[in-house]
Known about the structure:
Blueprint: E1 2-6, E2 11-15, E3 30-38, H1 41-46, H2 54-57, E4 61-70, H3 79-103
Parallel strand pairs: 2-4
Antiparallel strand pairs: 1-2, 3-4
Amino acid sequence: MEFFITDLIIDILVRYEGSLPDLFREGHSVVVEGFVKPFTEEIKGDVSSRSVSEKVRSGDCYFSATEVLAKYDEKYMPKEVAAATEKNKKKIEEGLEGVKESVA
Length: 104
């Protein structure tokens, strides 16, 4: 698998062999672990022109990834956790309403 990462100034090719996380998407943050390696002629010839731009292919080095992780937004919450949180909020609200009625 080939893709590139950018800091909006420098783009670098990432090469990775393995399964990508389900939340891996274009335009989303990612954490990539591995090593920066110099391009060899063999690798330059092997890089797909369809998957990455000429700018990325013309660099001096690439990133050989050993692990790729999707970086979650700080507000990310799995569906199951969000449902349980919402359920608990309703229970708390119902409990507070019961307390208000008994005080009145």
